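Hey, quick one: can you model this chain's 3D structure?
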Amino acid sequence: MKSVAVKFTISVAKRSLSYEGKCKFLHGYGHVVEAEFSSDTKGDMVVDFYEIKEKLGKWLDENWDHNTLLNKGDKPLGNVIEDMTGQKIFYLEGDPTSENMAQYIKETVCPELFDDVTCTRVRIYDTANEFAEVEG
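Sure thing. Here's the predicted structure for all 136 residues.
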């Protein structure tokens, strides 16, 4: 099996409703999103890097980069932010942890964007040394 991966850098604001540490406060992150695609293709390429950048990069830019990500249960805060800034908030089913963000990209976003190649792994880096990963 062959695989390729592309990294993207995004900036987001988020907070966790179910966490009692510092992450319960709205704060910013500079995340690195790494998505890996695999195929049993006998050809020379799994998928063109350009296609990944165009599709997934565009989705990240339009939905998450320089945006606020919140738990659906945090709509009162989201409504205030939208009313004051005009910013569209992106809501996840649970807290916008790196684990949940990676799972959302792998299980929801990539299947909608790619029908000829499989996203096999997504990593979301919180720092250069810490990441959450969803694979399989």
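One thing worth noting: The chain has a mean pLDDT of 95.
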